[in-house]
Design brief:
By secondary structure, the protein is α+β, with helices and mostly antiparallel strands. The protein has a single domain (5-91, 122-152), classed as 3-Layer(aba) Sandwich (Aminopeptidase). It contains six helices and seven strands. The chain has helices at 5-10, 36-44, 48-52, 61-69, 100-110, 135-149, and strands at residues 17-21, 24-30, 76-83, 87-95, 119-126, 154-158, 162-166. Strands 1-2-3-4-5-6-7 form a seven-stranded mixed β-sheet, with helices on both faces. Strand 1 (17-21) and strand 2 form a beta hairpin. This is N-acetyltransferase domain-containing protein. It comes from Rotaria socialis.
């Protein structure tokens, strides 16, 4: 059985993990409706350099409310990493659909045939003070089992350059 966004919405613990990073308790779980103030604090504190690589409409409570309101309404799955279940220090966004122009672009430019059933777009955002500490790598290890449960084999990661990672 393949895990769906509805399954995750009804049972967030299906993909939630708790672990330690540099001695801190980290909870990595789906974004919840009750997270809007925590998410607003995270967004407001992102530095200008981090914002250059982000595609947010804003970095405030309104944007946080929009993201929380969108839970299980569109093609997005958002996970957050929290210190001691309180402070969000990372937001990972997964797009469960692939837009039409990407099929053509990937095929023509990279020779890659995308498949919405097995491929998923992925965008991480880590708070400035946790960048360059391998925190993203730590969280990515948590992402891989979730992707497998969702029937995904490849993640399409957009950063400064395109990177496709085989999950299996």
């Amino acid at each position: 059985m393949v895990l769906t966004s509805d399954d995750i919405d009804k049972n967030p613990e299906l993909i939630s993990t708790t672990d330690y990073f540099e001695g801190m308790l980290i909870n990595f779980r789906p974004l919840l409706l009750t997270d809007e103030k925590k998410l607003a604090h995270f967004l407001e504190n992102l530095g200008s350099q981090t914002r250059k690589f982000s595609t947010r409409n804003g970095y405030d409570l309104n944007e946080a409310r929009d993201l929380c309101f969108a839970i299980n309404r569109y093609d997005k799955l958002r996970l957050v990493a929290l210190i001691n279940h309180e402070t969000i220090i990372a937001l990972f966004e997964f797009s469960l659909s692939i837009v039409e122009n990407e099929y053509k672009r990937f095929s023509e430019k990279y020779g890659i045939i995308l498949n919405e059933v097995t491929d998923m777009r992925f965008g991480p955002c880590i708070s400035d003070q946790y960048q360059n500490r391998h925190f993203g790598c730590c969280l990515f290890e948590k992402v891989k089992p979730m992707c497998k449960l969702m029937g995904k084999e490849r993640l399409i990661l957009w950063v400064v350059f395109l990177l496709i990672i085989n999950v299996l």
